[in-house]
């Protein structure tokens, strides 16, 4: 029941009560980093107060890292204008492998026993060869191939009196023979090493070392070819060297003279074949150019 004061109110008070009023919604709080769940309408009656920027501490910039340097690509050919590529063996690996190669391989061959005995000589544990990788024996053979190839320039300088005055083909024969002679102390175990490097996982390493050896021999011999024969010469020498190396494992002659004769015959055949191929190429080129000139003289536009 309404009170008497509310019923008997004056007309002016009634008019005031009946006037439309403008209601405003409460302003919603905004949180940094979040979207407000309620969208507020602009207030048409009250003036909007300007927002004050909150003072924030200056942002610390993350430390700038220098841009990565481009990796040095390892060249697969001999060059005097490029730095020598780094050794694929660490200092610890080189020490262990050198000891095994010099002291134990002539007796025990390319086996894990040679690496274990080398580790004992260096006062290391017997399990030390395991840090060479999943195939320590293949790593040992790779080290032999690498060291014999990289020491070939110094070996050539020791025989500079023999190399002077020889032709390029004669120098190639002598340098290849000097490289084969480096296998003499371990020749009785080299068939075993070849069998290990013939495994599919080791073929890329063996082929790369063989290609780099052929390039080293041609460079030391003074070959300066820049035509496509640059590739064919090195490919032919790689095959000849591999055949001579395998022949040497079964050679029983004094000082491996049969191996040297075998090497000389193969190199002569390759040179004759290369000369025949060059002659055929020259003949084909001359015939083709002559035919083109005849057709042009007949009015054919070529």
Automatic annotation (TrEMBL):
Comp. bias regions, Pro residues: 60-70
Chief place where the protein resides: mitochondrion
- Please list the residue ranges that the record marks as compositionally biased, kind Low complexity: 16-29, 44-59, 71-82
Please verify whether the record's keywords include Transit peptide.
yes
Q: Which residues form the COQ9 C-terminal domain?
A: 203-273
For this UniProt record, the keywords arranged alphabetically read as follows: Lipid-binding, Mitochondrion, Transit peptide, Ubiquinone, Ubiquinone biosynthesis
Localization: Mitochondrion
Pfam (any one): COQ9
| Keyword Transit peptide applies | yes
Q: In which pathway does it act?
A: Cofactor biosynthesis; ubiquinone biosynthesis
**Region (Disordered) residue spans:** 16-91
Family (UniProt): Belongs to the COQ9 family.
Cited function: Membrane-associated protein that warps the membrane surface to access and bind aromatic isoprenes with high specificity, including ubiquinone (CoQ) isoprene intermediates and presents them directly to Coq7, therefore facilitating the Coq7-mediated hydroxylase step. Participates in the biosynthesis of coenzyme Q, also named ubiquinone, an essential lipid-soluble electron transporter for aerobic cellular respiration.
What protein name does the entry list? Ubiquinone biosynthesis protein
Organism for this UniProt entry: Podospora comata
């Amino acid at each position: 029941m309404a009170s008497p004061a509310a019923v008997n109110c004056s007309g002016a008070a009634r008019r005031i009560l009946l006037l439309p009023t403008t209601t405003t919604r409460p302003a919603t709080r905004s949180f940094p980093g979040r979207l407000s769940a309620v969208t507020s309408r602009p207030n048409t009656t009250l003036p909007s107060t300007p927002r004050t920027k909150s003072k924030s501490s200056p942002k610390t910039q993350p430390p700038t890292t220098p841009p990565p340097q481009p990796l040095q690509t390892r060249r697969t050919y001999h060059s005097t204008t490029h730095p020598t590529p780094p050794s694929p063996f660490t200092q610890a690996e080189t020490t262990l492998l050198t000891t095994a190669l010099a002291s134990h391989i002539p007796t025990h061959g390319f086996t894990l026993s040679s690496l274990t005995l080398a580790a004992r000589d260096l006062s290391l544990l017997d399990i030390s060869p395991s840090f060479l990788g999943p195939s320590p024996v293949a790593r040992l053979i790779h080290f032999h191939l690498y060291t014999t190839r990289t020491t070939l320039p110094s070996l050539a300088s020791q025989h500079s009196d023999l190399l002077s005055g020889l032709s390029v083909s004669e120098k190639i024969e002598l340098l290849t023979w000097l490289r084969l002679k480096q296998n003499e102390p371990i020749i009785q175990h080299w068939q075993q090493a070849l069998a290990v490097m013939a495994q599919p996982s080791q073929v890329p390493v063996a082929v790369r070392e063989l290609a780099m050896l052929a390039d080293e021999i041609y460079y030391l011999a003074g070959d300066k070819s820049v035509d496509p024969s640059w590739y064919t010469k090195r490919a032919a020498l790689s095959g000849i060297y591999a055949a001579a190396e395998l022949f040497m494992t079964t050679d029983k002659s004094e000082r491996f003279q049969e191996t040297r004769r075998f090497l000389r015959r193969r190199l002569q055949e390759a040179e004759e074949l290369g000369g025949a191929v060059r002659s055929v190429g020259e003949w084909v080129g001359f015939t083709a150019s002559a035919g083109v000139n005849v057709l042009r003289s007949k009015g054919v536009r070529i």
